[in-house]
Design the sequence.
């Protein structure tokens, strides 16, 4: 009888007929079982299954651990190595490192640096690890050696050195990578290459003379080990310089122009006789110096004395510069001829030897009385002086420490000429004051109105009111004015009453008069009673000044007026200016015609800064020939129109006088040809 075997690993049949199973067929963690089936070659018996076995992990191991370098210092990097890793299961090596100093972990990598100091015992422990189990750990240790200190430099002073000096040897920066911060030093001296006896840090002149070469050698120590010796710079001993013992300046103070003298004394340890020389802070040399304006008050002037043989020594003394007072050389007033409203200006020449900035103060006097004091170099006559007064100024210059003053010559204020007047020459302009027509039923009393705007005072010459109409029992004419313009109480300036009106159309006149008006607004009214339709009124020919403006405003046409006797009451009239319509109003503001009266009028009055009374004198010429027949008034002169011919050039000259001075102004006009205008069959 035979037995047939079958192995199962982690549930999978291997189909392997053997009573043994090698480890190549399983790994740790697998479950392994087998079955056995008896057979006689013809029939199989009952199959039996074994117990199940779980394969366990095998621990890994290492055979040796080492640390290099064997004698590290604190600057070394330690490397931990191991050998002989073995794992029966063939698992991947996952061994770890543990660096310790005195039992404390300081690293877990294969290398370690910067974590240890001199004298530390550093141990590296390697624990074999296959990822499942760890084996027995092995360790290796090293001791960190001391590192000698390093001296960077040595300096020997003073440099240069002279005979009699004490030399000092100074160690520079010393470092120790072990972290030591306190060091000791040993000193050795050489003179001309030979060792000198002292081992101290200093060396006196007892051991060297002028011309010797001296050096020192310093060795550092950290208390455990000595570092490398370092040699200083070499000093060649020089001659001992003389000594300046005293320096003085006389006099002890001075100003610009003063002379200062410097003196000194000296000694020489070598027994020689030093030469003395002097230099001043002003740039001058020599024992004496004269002060100039380059030095300011309060500045310090220093004399430096030098004693020299082969070498030299210096010392100095100083004095403080005093202030020099400023000087006002001249004060001049301009203009030399001055009138009441002129401005006087003072021109000053001043200087300061120290070159200080000067502050000028002006004290202005009028007739000996102080009028104004301050920084202004000008004085206005409009505020401070009048005709015949004497004006002068006293100027004071101040440099901040001292002052100087000077008074100008006086000037007497002259008379001021009056200003020239504005002059214009006016002729006459004829204008019709409008034609108002109404065809209303005029069986009651009606009012008709025209407007005249008089922009200046004057005379409305030959003012006439004309009418034509029928069956009017009476008609009155008025010229009214109102101080309030469009509304208010009306004042009767002129009227014509009790006129009879014919039944047939005709021009009737109430009579021509001259109406004197003041600047303002005037209205011409017609008042008709008991008239039939078709009545027509003309408010006639009127002479106006050439600068008078006028327009036409019609109001109350057909308005019943029930009053009786003199016209009175309150009225409202449109007083807005409107441009004149063709032939209703004609105005020639820029022309003078043959036969016109010429009026030369002062339109802008003169002024006199002195407040003197002003008078005007008029003079005429025509085509360059003097004309003496004008009629003069205080502010105007009139040439009769009978003397005015076409194309003549008339000039009016006005002289204004304040009794002492005179000024003139003039105006010129050219007379044009006269002509007639025929309106509605009526010649004007």
Sequence:
């Amino acid at each position: 009888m035979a037995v047939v075997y079958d192995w199962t690993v982690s549930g999978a049949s291997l189909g392997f007929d053997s009573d043994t199973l090698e480890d190549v067929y399983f790994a740790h963690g697998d479950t392994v079982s087998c079955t056995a089936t008896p057979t006689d070659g013809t029939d199989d018996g009952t199959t039996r299954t074994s117990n199940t076995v779980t394969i366990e992990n095998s621990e890994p191991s290492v055979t040796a651990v080492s640390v290099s370098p064997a004698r590290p210092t604190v600057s070394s990097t330690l490397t931990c190595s191991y050998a002989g890793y073995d794992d029966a299961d063939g698992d991947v090596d996952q061994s770890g490192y543990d660096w310790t100093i005195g039992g404390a972990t300081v690293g877990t990598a294969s290398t370690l640096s910067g974590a240890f100091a001199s004298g530390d015992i550093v141990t590296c422990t390697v624990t074999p690890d296959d990822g499942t189990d760890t084996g027995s750990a092995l360790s290796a240790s090293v001791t960190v050696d001391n590192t000698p200190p390093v001296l960077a430099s040595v300096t020997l002073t003073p440099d240069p050195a002279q005979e009699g000096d004490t030399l000092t040897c100074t160690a520079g920066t010393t470092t120790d990578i072990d972290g030591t911060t306190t060091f000791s030093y040993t000193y050795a001296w050489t003179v001309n290459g030979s060792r000198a006896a002292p081992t101290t840090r200093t060396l006196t002149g007892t051991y060297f003379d002028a011309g010797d070469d001296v050096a020192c050698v310093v060795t550092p120590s950290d208390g455990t080990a000595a570092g490398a010796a370092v040699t200083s710079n070499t000093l060649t001993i020089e001659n001992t310089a003389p000594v300046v013992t005293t320096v003085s300046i006389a006099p002890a103070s001075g100003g610009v122009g003063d002379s200062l003298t410097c003196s000194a004394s000296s000694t020489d340890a070598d027994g020689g006789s030093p030469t003395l020389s002097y230099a001043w802070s002003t740039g001058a040399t020599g024992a004496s110096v004269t002060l100039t304006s380059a030095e300011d008050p309060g500045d310090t002037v220093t004399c430096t004395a030098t004693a020299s043989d082969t070498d030299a020594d210096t010392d100095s003394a100083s004095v403080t510069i005093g202030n020099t007072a400023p000087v006002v050389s001249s004060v001049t007033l301009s203009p030399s001829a001055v009138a009441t409203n002129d401005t006087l200006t003072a021109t000053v020449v001043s200087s300061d030897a120290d070159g200080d900035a000067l502050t000028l103060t002006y004290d202005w006097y009028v007739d000996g009385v102080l009028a104004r004091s301050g920084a202004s170099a000008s004085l206005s006559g409009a505020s401070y002086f009048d005709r015949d007064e004497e004006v002068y100024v006293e100027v004071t210059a101040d440099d901040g420490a001292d002052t100087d003053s000077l008074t100008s010559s006086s000037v007497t204020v002259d008379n001021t000429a009056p200003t020239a007047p504005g002059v214009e020459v006016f002729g006459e302009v004829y204008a019709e004051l409008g034609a108002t027509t109404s065809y209303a039923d005029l069986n009651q009393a009606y009012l008709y109105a025209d407007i005249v705007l008089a922009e200046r005072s004057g005379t409305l010459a030959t003012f006439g009111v004309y009418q034509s109409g029928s069956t009017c029992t009476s008609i009155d004419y008025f010229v009214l004015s109102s101080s309030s313009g469009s509304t208010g109480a009306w004042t009767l300036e002129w009227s014509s009453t009790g006129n009879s009106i014919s039944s047939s159309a005709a021009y009737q006149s109430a009579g021509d008069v001259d109406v004197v008006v003041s600047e303002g607004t005037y209205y011409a009214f017609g008042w008709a009673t008991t008239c039939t339709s078709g009545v027509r009124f003309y408010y006639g020919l009127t002479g106006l000044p050439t600068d008078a403006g006028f327009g036409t405003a019609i109001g109350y046409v057909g308005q019943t007026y029930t009053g009786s006797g003199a016209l009175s009451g309150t009225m409202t009239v449109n007083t807005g200016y409107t441009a004149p319509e063709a032939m209703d109003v004609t105005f020639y503001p820029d022309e003078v015609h043959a036969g016109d009266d010429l009026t030369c009028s002062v339109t802008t009055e003169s002024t006199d800064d002195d407040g003197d009374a002003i008078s005007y004198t008029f003079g005429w010429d025509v085509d360059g020939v003097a004309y003496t027949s004008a009629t003069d008034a205080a502010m105007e002169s009139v040439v009769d129109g009978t003397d005015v011919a076409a194309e003549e050039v008339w000039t009016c000259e006005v002289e204004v006088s304040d009794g002492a001075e005179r000024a003139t102004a003039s105006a010129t006009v050219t007379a044009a040809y006269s002509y007639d205008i025929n309106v509605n069959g009526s010649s004007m």
In short: The domain at 592-672 is CATH 2.60.40 (Immunoglobulin-like). The helical segments are 381-384.
